[in-house]
Amino acid sequence: MHDYTRLPETPDDLTEFYTRHLNLVSAISQQLSSVQKIVEANAPEKDTLAMRLLIRHLHITGLIVGGMLDCITISKGLGRSELFWDKLYYFRKIYLTIYETIRTFDKLNPTIREIVNRREEDAKALYQNVTKSLKKFKKEYQFEGRMSKIRNTIGGHIHYNFIEYFDQLSRFDMEEARKAVLDFAEIQKSLLLLLLGILSAPELNSIEQQILTSNLPLEALQQLKTVLDKI
Q1: Is the pTM value of this prediction over 0.85?
Q2: Among candidate residues 158, 193, 156, the one with its CA nearest the CA of residue 61
Q3: Most confident option among 13-22, 162-171, 194-203
Q4: 49-71 confidence digits (pLDDT tens)
Q5: 210 neighbors 46 (Cβ within 8 angstroms)
Q6: N-to-C CA span, the chain
C-alpha cells in the first residue's frame, strides 16, 4: 500500500488521493463480503473471526476516509471565501462534520480497540495517542457543551428558535473554529495512519495465511487470494 506518512500537499491532490482509497476500500470490502459465507462455512471459528474483523476494519477505514474528504472539501470552500457569511457557513459545516465524525468514532471505538489489540505494540501505542488526543480535543472545545449546541442550533439545521439561532451565529468564534479544524485534522491523520498502517502490517499476512490454509474450495481460495493481494 501507499506510504501514508508522505501525503500529497495540495487540497485537490489530497481529494484525489483519498477518493482513490475510498473507492479501493469499498471495492475490496465488497469482494471480501462476497466470499465471506464460503469462508464461514468451511473455515474454523478463529479464522472466520479474522475475516469478519478485516471487513469491519475496512468499513471503519472507509468512514474515516469519507470524513476526511468532507473536511478537505469544506476547507477548500473556506479558503476561497472572503465574505463573513460565506466563512461562517463553511465553519458551521466543518464543525458539524467534526462533531459527527467524533460521534461515529465513539460508536465504533470498541471494534477499533478489538482490532488494535490483535496487533503489535506500536499499533497499540498509536491507538492510545489517538484516543488521548481526541479526549483532549473534546475537553478543550467542549464537545458535549458548546460543540453540541452549535451542531443543534446552527450546524445541522436552522433552529426553530430564532433568538437562540441568531445568538449562536453572533457568538460564533471563527478563530477558535480555525484552531479546532487544524487540531482535528492532525487527529484524523493519526487515526488514518493507524487504520491504514495496520492493513499493510505483518499481522495481515498472518490473517491471510490462516484463512488461505483453511479447508476452502479452490475457487474461493483463488478469489480470496486475489482480493487480499490488493490490500
Answers
A1: no
A2: 193
A3: 162-171
A4: 777 778 888 889 899 999 989 99
A5: yes
A6: 7
